[in-house]
Description:
- This protein is of the alpha/beta class.
- Helices cover about 45% and strands about 15% of the residues.
- It is built from 15 helices and 13 strands.
- The strands form 3 sheets. Strands 1-11-10-9-12-13 form a 6-stranded mixed β-sheet, sandwiched between helices. A 5-stranded mixed β-sheet has the order 4-3-2-5-8. It has a two-stranded antiparallel sheet with strand order 6-7.
- It is globular.
- The N and C termini lie far apart (about 115 Å).
- It binds beta-D-glucopyranose (BGC).
- Beta-D-glucopyranose binds next to helix 5 and strand 10.
- Beta-D-glucopyranose binds near residues 228 and 254.
Amino acid sequence: MGKVTVGVAVVGAAAVCAAAALIARHRMRSSSLCVKAADIVKELEEKCATPTAKLRQIADAMTVEMHAGLASEGGSKLKMLISYVDNLPTGNEEGVYYALDLGGTNFRVLRVQLGGKSGIEFTEFAEVSIPPQLMIGTPEALFDYIASELAKFVSDEGDKFWLPPGRQRELGFTFSFPVMQLSIDSGTLIRWTKGFSIDEMIGRDVVVELASAMKRRGIDMSISALVNDTVGTLAGGRYGNSDVCIAVILGTGSNAAYVERAQAIPKWHGPHPKSGEMVINMEWGNFRSSHLPLTEYDNTLDAESLNPGEQIFEKMISGMYLGELLRKVLYRMADEAALFGESVPPKLKTRFILRTPEMSAMHHDTSADLRVVGNTLKDVFGIMDTSLSTRKIVVEICNIFATRGARLAAAGILGIVKKMGRDTIRDGEIPKTVIAMDGGLYEHYAEYRSCLENTLDELVGDQLAKHVKLILSNDGSGIGAALLAASHSRYL
Ligand code: BGC
């Protein structure tokens, strides 16, 4: 063999070795990144775990806080607000009533013609989204916008809606934020939630603000009832089913209301209601307990929010936040485990870029190659190519957060059922408890909904499961507000 040939052979061998070393290093790095990715998912799974025993502790903590919030104003993180609704609709309500439902990114206006015993004769509604700048602007700008949309809607009222002569139109105002009510038709805002932040409004009467804006727009209508969406849902639910005694909203935000015995409300010093009952708006979104399975992602989400330290339960279970929690985990995995390649895709850094409906679409992807997941990652984050194993990881994280949220919501419901004493057999009979559910998360996120339903059955046990039922009360809150306007009409 000549010298040249030997030299080529040596160089060739060196190149092969270097390439092999590179491949080995690459493999080692890839496998250590895989391990890192698996560790992050495993850690998340452990921290988000909600075994039944933990859920029972959470339910008990909810019951304890309910007692404390009813005992005195400020006695608990749970506000347990008195709604001044001591009678739910009977089904005899009659006439045309309006409702305005403000509480998330959209607001709705609706009118109903109530026909007494013949029920709801007609309804019409319009839905308008709220321009984001109005959510953090001034009270006047927000209420003027709402009033102008209401004015347009009122001007379209057709002949089938009928107002007796000499009467002014009446409206039920669903305002889905914590409000300290002073009567059925007045109340001051305690604080904003769900991304709204208009400081000037805090402490102001929301009915006065809406009424002034309506006057500025020349709308001839009075506001007969101010209700939280949970209270509206309870009223709407009861109208259709006399066993409804709890309402839960799982949408952008989350909350629950229920019917309490007036005697069990030590902080209520008003006249004893004839019905002996009072609807309580719990504001359960603000529930907090050491038993809640909080993670580092929850903590940063909270710290970065407009309301740090508040609405911790809501931030774990509701639609406004689930997508953002998922984004936070994906960001960490991109950064620490190169889940989407060598560099972190820039859009993955944008807060709230991934919405819960997109998370839900990925979670429900049944295609063999998880096409919906791939497309969503592309459309939302601009991540072009993802392997099947990466897509599977994404689905796994969706599942972890949705399961945790749904199971916690079920524990919250158990807490209310217990507070109402409906978890036990009374006089040999098991009372029927129907829970009216509303909100886009519950309505559209099927995995979340079925997990919630199964968990509630699991928590109440076989014997009770048949007697504790969830029903979807679609737009119960709007109709409910109109019904409450009717039952609190000034012409009665
Ligand atoms: C609000 C509640 C409301 C719930 C659902 C929460 O953020 O504080 O008043 O009922 O969202 O809309």
